[in-house]
Each structure stands twice: as structure tokens, then as C-alpha cells.
């Protein structure tokens, strides 16, 4: 798995715990292909190429570097709110630049050692494909190893470690290594937001991520 998998998990809580600064999403359309008849809408499966940088120009992730575009369902919380809002009404082949305030990104806590607190995010994105909506992944079920309908810190910890593990024995990136170094902090950040009654477990009702299988 890559850094974007871990960031997708953190997107469940990032915008909710954002700081108080009031700034807006900025969307700059770089290019639009001729003859666009289908545009992205809520619930579509989008396949994107992207590069993400911070204000200082530091690149924290890029699908181009891996030569592997990223596919996700828009509008259901699988990505940060800046993407859910900034990638609507987009044509296949269209390129945009997104400037995303921390309130629509990873908030006042950031994301481990990769994205600092209150960070403004800059993305150059290209829409590769628009597909039909797939069955929603039941992330709660994937984390709940003992199937007791409650998530413990240990279960969440193991799930995150699996998401961070490089596929097929590949080499771990420096960004993922940094995330692992702050692994315990990430677990606590998620629990602080999701464990509403502070009983040390995240119940099915408390969990804000995808948790229902499609019928």
C-alpha cells in the first residue's frame, strides 16, 4: 500500500478537527478537452493522477512517481473534503490545480510527520476515467478483527500497519517510514475523534467511515 491509503484513512477525521481559520477552496482549471459530454458527479468512481505539495513546494505524494493512478468514490468521505468538493463537474482529460485550506484537508493535527498542522495543500490533478459506483467497502468490518462490533486500539493499529506495508515486498518509502514513526500518535488522533463516549472503543455507531455493505 502507498501513502495515499494511509491519508485516506486519516481523511475520516482530518476536516472535522480542523482549525478555526476561515479560508476557501480554490480551483483553477488548467485545461479542458474538447467535446466533453460527461462530467464527474457525487458517487462516481474517479481515477486520477495527482501530485500533492505543501506551501514550501515539498512534494508529499504523487501518483505520477509510481505510474499508478488513484481510484476512489467521490462524495462519500473516502478522501479529504477538498477533493470531494474540488473534483466535481470535471471532464475526463481535464487538468486542475487545487489549493485546499487545512479546514478541508487534515486540520489542526496534520497527518503524522508528513503533513504539518494547519497545512494548506496544493494538488495538480488530472481526471483519467469516470466509472460507475462500486459496492461501498465496509472499512469498519475490515478493522474489526474479532467481529465484536467494537474497534479497539490494537485492531486499529494492526489495520494501519497493514495499510502502510509495501506491496509484494517492495521498498518502503520515506513518507511511509515517517508515518510509522508517529504510528501511535495517529491511532490516538483517530480515537480522540471517533471514540465519542471515551470508553476506549469505537462502536459501529460512533465510526464515521464506510461501514455498510451494499445489498
UniProtKB/TrEMBL annotation:
It comes from the Eukaryota. Residues 193-215 are annotated as: Disordered. Keywords: Calcium, Endoplasmic reticulum, Glycoprotein, Isomerase, Repeat, Rotamase, Signal. Residues 138-166, 182-215 form the EF-hand domain. SUPFAM superfamilies: EF-hand (SSF47473), FKBP-like (SSF54534). The keyword Repeat applies. InterPro entries: EF-hand-dom_pair, EF_Hand_1_Ca_BS, EF_hand_dom, PPIase_dom_sf, PPIase_FKBP, PPIase_FKBP_dom. Residues 43-131 form the PPIase FKBP-type domain. Residues 1-18 form the signal peptide. Its EC number is 5.2.1.8. It is an enzyme of class 5 (isomerase). PROSITE patterns: EF_HAND_1, EF_HAND_2, FKBP_PPIASE. This is peptidylprolyl isomerase. It comes from Parnassius mnemosyne (clouded apollo).
